[in-house]
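User: Working on a comparison across species. This one is Gliding motility-associated lipoprotein GldH from Mesonia algae. Can you predict its structure so I can line it up against the others?
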Amino acid sequence: MHKLGVFLLGSIFLVSAISCDSKQVYDEYKSIPNTWAKDSVVKFEIKNIDSLQTYNLFFNVRNNSDYKYNNLFLISKMQFPNGKQITDTLEYEMAYPNGDFMGTGAGEVKENKLWYKENVRFLEDGAYTVTLEQAMRENGEVEGIKNLEGILEIGFRVEKTTN
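Assistant: Here's the predicted structure for Gliding motility-associated lipoprotein GldH from Mesonia algae:
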């Protein structure tokens, strides 16, 4: 009887964990080896997405205590199947005024789910490509930071909106 109870409890936990993320359509992470080089592009490709549904888009950033800035500047590009491209320069807060990192996670690694676009419809058939580059600079400097430390992974997430 004890084994059956453990099995049922485990099954309930698994079903509830899966259903909590029922909005997820696409969720992928790319590791950043050692440092994120200024000319390194992180690329995600989204295929076979429902053109009748609206979606919210997010970037997920995992950083550790080697990240020494309060914010993060990114350049994103979304390329449509027909070749059209949208480029955005984005700024996200990464730390509170006292220096503590925002985000979730215990220990030195924090994860931030950052809004990119909301209520997006993918009306064209084919693959959409989203790229991301770091665009960090020291205060008063024109040249960007060549090797950004402390960013461990970059993710891209597509979620169904609730209508």
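For your comparison, note: Residues 25-160 form a domain with the Jelly Rolls fold (CATH 2.60.120).

User: Helpful, thanks.
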